[in-house]
Design goal:
six-stranded mixed beta sheet, 131 residues, 3 helices
Length: 131
């Protein structure tokens, strides 16, 4: 996945702004390159440890991406106090097998952004390129 620096900065800023709650959103683009980052509201009843994207915002993001001819490349969410690796819950709730899962960790001194494919419970890390 190609995640341009300005989109990377936007999702990190979103994660920081929402901490200690998890932030979430959608990344859309073409040919593996992110063109739009949709920062969504977390409506989970337990936002410190889970995320649930606002369904209306998510639908609008999907509709906007489709109107622009963009594909759903990834969902993203933050782990304010833990590693950038899918939790058991993340794996169980991976509803879009064609999409990647970007996780932003705020644990430690420097945010870490990692990308994963999650299919049938199997987690595979994939590289993120910035350009």
């Amino acid at each position: 996945m190609i995640l341009p620096p300005h989109h990377r900065a936007a999702i990190i800023a979103h994660a920081r702004a929402q901490a200690p709650q998890e932030a979430c959103g959608v990344l859309a683009g073409a040919s593996g390159r992110v063109r739009r980052a949709y920062l969504l509201r977390n409506t989970s009843a337990t936002p410190q440890s889970n995320y649930l994207a606002d369904p209306e915002q998510q639908l609008r993001a999907f509709q906007d991406a489709e109107r622009r001819g963009l594909d759903l490349l990834a969902t993203y969410h933050s782990h304010p106090g833990s590693a950038a690796y899918p939790s058991e819950t993340d794996i169980a709730l991976a509803y879009y097998p064609q999409a990647r899962h970007v996780i932003i960790s705020l644990a430690g001194g420097r945010p870490q952004v990692r990308c994963f494919a999650i299919e049938s419970g199997q987690v595979t890390e994939e590289p993120i390129t910035q350009r």
